[in-house]
Write a structure and sequence with these properties.
146 residues; mainly beta; Metal Binding Protein, Guanine Nucleotide Exchange Factor, Chain A; 2 helices; 10 strands
Amino acid sequence: MDKTGQCMCGAVTLRATLSSNILNVCNCDMCRRWTGSEFISVRVNQDSIVLDGPVKRFQSSEWAERGFCGICGSTLFYRLTAEVPGQGDYNFAAGMFDTRDMKIGMEFFVDTKPQGYALAGNHTKLTRAETAAHFGVSFEEDGKNA
């Protein structure tokens, strides 16, 4: 499914093919610091991305980076930079697109989210340990999850 999107100010635009019609949610400490809440994303095939504008990148761990708009600061994407089997695609912020017809497929780090967060629907919920096993990585104990 091809989609177009943009950051809050419109300076960064995106055209890409979504890998699925599913939303993913991350509740790790870093995503919550980065977004002020959980990071809700859609997986995008990296070969289909046409990204234009003042994109800034931040290496958030030794195996992942995050992108944001250099003008308005909008969250753009999270992607694994290390070789993790089956995980080469970008995860773009759901807010860049019209995602009203999408449902949550997976929720990560459910054991570290604030008690007041509760997402509706029947979806897969992975703890910190299960998230590490899912991606085949290990997380630091100092709050730097991903």
